[in-house]
Amino acid sequence: MEESPHEWILKRRHEDLSLTVRTSWSLYIQFYTVFLTVSVVGLGWVLTRPADAPIVPRAKHVIAIVFVIQTLLTAITSGAIAFYTMHVARDQEHIEKLLVQSNVDALPSCGPAVPASLAWFAGLVQLCGDACYGRFVALRGFHLLAASRRN
Predict the structure, then answer these.
(1) Are 66 and 42 in contact (CB under 8 A)?
(2) CA torsion 10→13→15→16, rounded to 10°?
């Protein structure tokens, strides 16, 4: 039995969505790893630096701004990847229903191909973590800025 062009397009679209969401998550994890490494190194440098060590006041502004921007970028990206994964899961479910219109019992009894609830949870937890980390960095950065103005 030869499949119709409509069926072929739906199957291809389903496959492409799966590949795209896997690639997106892979890129997100790589992106986050780089940002996390830079943030931890920078934060370690700021926190372990002796209090009496001289630092250019302008550098403190730049460091605080960079930390805040990094935290915002990772938070936005975490939320975006969660929403995107949920959107892909809905699209795939719709495609699957279209493919088995003639036989609804043919839908698989296993979970979805894209674990959208896991992605949603991971993205939102990361978003909350970034918000807490951002608050810590901002408070620490502003504390450093205030201390530099007193000196």
Answers:
(1) yes
(2) 170
| The token pair that represents 104 in the structure block | 């609804």
Question: What is the average per-residue pLDDT within 131-146?
Answer: 64
- Those residues with Cβ within 8 angstroms of residue 73's Cβ, 6 or more apart along the chain or in another chain: 35
List the domain boundaries for the chain.
9-48+56-150
Cα gap 60→44, rounded to integer Å = 14
Question: How much is the pTM?
Answer: 0.69
- For the chain, the 3-state helix, strand and coil shares in percent, each to the nearest 5, are 85, 0, 15
Residue 92, token pair as written in the block: 């795939």
